[in-house]
Amino acid sequence: xxxxxxxxxxxxxxxxxxxxxxxxxxxxxxxxxxxxxxxxxxxxxxxxxxxxxxxxxxxxxxxxxxxxxxxxxxxxxxxxxxxxxxxxxxxxxxxxxxxxxxxxxxxxxxxxxxxxxxxxxxxxxxxxxxxxxxxxxxxxxxxxxxxxxxxxxxxxxxxxxxxxxxxxxxxxxxxxxxxxxxxxxxxxxxxxxxxxxxxxxxxxxxxxxxxxxxxxxxxxxxxxxxxxxxxxxxxxxxxxxxxxxxxxxxxxxxxxxxxxxxxxxxxxxxxxxxxxxxxxxxxxxxxxxxxxxxxxxxxxxxxxxxxxxxxxxxxxxxxxxxxxxxxxxxxxxxxxxxxx
Length: 340
Prior knowledge:
single chain; alpha/beta; Rossmann fold; 2 domains; 3-stranded antiparallel sheet; 11 helices
């Protein structure tokens, strides 16, 4: 579809009729002045090199140049293009725990913000890999399908919060089951599930789902976040309490995290205030089989201002060779007058 990136600049085309009116008024004024000096026939004999057609031609070229210049800055666009490359990479899908326990501040600024920062850092290092994202609490929901568009992935990541899943709790089994369905059907490519959670699994089946994923050739890496000694969960109303009014204490369940990672043919890493966990995970991901796959970049609109610019340059070159006065060399070709 043809369009302009900045159609508001097209209003500048309205100055062309104004310029034409000014030119016509100026030419009529010149004609009246010439008629006062001498009769038209005599005036032509006195000024044999004077041309009445050349100034009109030069002015027309000038108006066309202005119109092309305005069209160029309005940026005409037509069609869309995608860039496809074959690059070696792996597929990584992140499963981020968004239960309320992720608001605990035993890892600064809190568990959820620290997890988002870790994923963002890993995404910056995955330029040739495909990645996806899901969130889970009592249920699991896809957040972004697997893609090589890192910019879009980070935009989705920025919008993640603990209100995204209405059913509270931590159902790690459902998260692993959903992630397993997010990968492509490509063969021979390393596929990793990166589970970021405090490990407080309130539903069964997590270890079984991890084993099932491992049988399909996927690796389950668990990144545990939080303090095993426990921490409070701050809310807008104060510390989170249970139905009996007792303050809820959330603990990092290290043993559960390790069992899931072992069953999923992966590894467990403890997230703290340093970058050690993400560096260790990055090293493990680099060991997976990197297969050549098709990477599609963008769906950008094709810019057409270059063609307008070339046409403008040609018009300006023509204008340079059109003189205001008659040229004896060009006269033999009768370019600007009728042959007798």
